[in-house]
Amino acid sequence: MFKKVLIANRGEIACRVIRACRELGVKTVAIHSEADKESMHVKLADQSICVGPATSSESYLNIPSIIAAAEISGADAIHPGYGFLAENTYFAEVCETCGIKFIGPKKESIEKMGDKIAAIALMKKAGVPVVPGSGGPVDADDPKVAALAKKIGYPVIIKATAGGGGKGMRIVVSEETLRNSIIMAQEEAKRAFGNPDVYMEKYVEEPHHIEFQILGDAYGKVCYLPERDCSIQRRHQKLVEESPSPFIDDALRKKMGKAAKNAAAAVGYVTVGTVEFLVDKNKKFYFMEMNTRIQVEHPVTEMITGIDLVKEQIKLAAGEKLSFNSEKIKILGHSIECRINAEDPDKDFIPCPGKIGKLYLPGGPGIRLDTHVYSGYTIPPFYDSLIAKIISFGENREESILRMQRALKEVEIEGIKNTSSLHYKIMSNGQFRKGGVATDFLPKYIFGR
Ligand code: ADP
After folding, report:
1. Most buried residue, 93, 151, 210, 273, by most Cβ within 10 Å?
2. For residues 392 and 342, is the Cβ–Cβ distance under 8 A?
């Protein structure tokens, strides 16, 4: 096992990793920007080092500073969390060169799954079903593109090859808007990822976002855990996740789980990762992408399986063997996660950074809180707006929802706007209560457009 882990991240995930390390008896080093010196992760870690100014490119993405911090503190491993450098092949390579273990998959796995077009081609070869599409970048002025769109069949979706966070995507319903949509998606992709390449695929109608947690050890064993349903999204970004999915039955779970396992095995996957699928209204499923890191929504899987995924991730990176099989995993109940953001739901979700006054966060039976905020904490304007994840657990879906509703009513965050009222609306909605809603749920049933 490692002696000291540096956490190259901030916010709730840095706190989550520190907690896992502490339970494993591993010392921790927090890094932080100048804007984050009063952050919870800095207070929780055994040691902390400032790596640069507020701007992420100068601090949380500053590879030389982070490596120097690891060397100065004597850390033998780095946990990247999610976002920032978590899926950066170059960073994984630098860590390796410096003799510091990167807690994640091999750099080749990140590379193979990082380019969405290459990943789709690889999955096709491995026998995993994929969405019909261009199979390569498309250009607005290529005369063959319109013919291809017609062949695939409208609606189609234009997506960034370097995509993430739902950026650089455009749904196209007819040829009239195809050219413009490609240009707009390219511009957005260039701004967000520095790479303008986009590709085209069939827009799966009434899609359900279903993903599988997978774990792999360094000796070739891979296993999958029961699915997460992340269909409740705003602008292609997840807001609510639950497990198990009310849309999936045992037979489909097994079939998709095996496909996820094959996907991970095809890139020799080690540690934890997620294989994302789209499932259409006829329950046909398609590989979408693989995320080669721990995900924001990992707690719902932890709640229903009893497995601590972050501890497992660290143990697998340290060379331990995977100690369980997919077939033996029991679903212990039902879990839901609501992402509470510092945003104003009444003003088009504009971010609301600022100082938190009085703070009351819920607890009680079946409620877990993953957060880094505290009373008197100032949320800086430089980073994402996630301030807390409320995770409920119940014997069944109904109990999990009732507990979440109860918890959401208890939330009191003075001084900043947050999205807990929107989550309450979702939990109370008749369609949501029925279960199995698709990704159009929010615009259709909550925002009424
Ligand atoms: P990102 O990496 O930006 O998060 P994803 O490929 O994971 O992008 O897609 C994010 C969301 O966009 C999906 O959960 C789904 O709602 C929607 N989406 C992506 N591809 C398709 C598709 N072919 N058909 C329908 N919806 C899609």
Report:
1. 273
2. no
Residues of the chain with pLDDT under 50: none
Let me know: does 62 contact 52? Beta carbons within 8 Å. Answer: yes
Q: Please tell me the predicted confidence (pLDDT) of residue 209.
A: 98
Q: In what order do the strands lie in the sheet with 4-7?
A: 47-52, 27-33, 4-7, 77-79, 101-102
Ligand 1 atom nearest residue 230's Cα: 14
What are the pLDDT digits (tens) for 329-350?
999 999 999 999 999 999 999 9
Q: How far apart are CA 214 and CA 18, in angstroms?
A: 22
At 425, the amino acid letter reads K
| Torsion sign, CA atoms 349, 354, 359, 363 | positive
9 neighbors 51 (Cβ within 8 angstroms): no
The three-class DSSP label of residue 151 is helix
pLDDT of 416: 97
Rounded to whole angstroms, the Cα distance separating 148 from 370 reads 45
Ligand 1 atom showing the smallest separation from residue 291 Cα = 2
Query: Annotated catalytic sites, by residue?
Result: 293
Residue 246: cis peptide before it, omega within 30 degrees of 0: no
Closest by CA position to 189, among listed 180, 198, 199: 198
Judged by DSSP in three states, 379 sits in strand
The angle formed by the CA atoms of residues 261, 263 and 264, to the nearest 5 degrees, is 65
Pocket test for ligand 1, best of 167, 284, 288, 437 (most atoms within 8 A of CB): 288
* Residue 69 tokens, joined: 């911090």
Distance CA 94, CA 190 (A): 25
Q: Supply the residue whose CA is at minimum distance from atom 17 of ligand 1.
A: 236
Task: For residues 107 and 428, give the distance between their C-alpha atoms in angstroms, rounded to a whole number.
Answer: 44
**274 with 213: CB under 8 angstroms?**
yes
Tell me, rounded to whole angstroms, the distance of Cα 132 from its chain centroid.
24
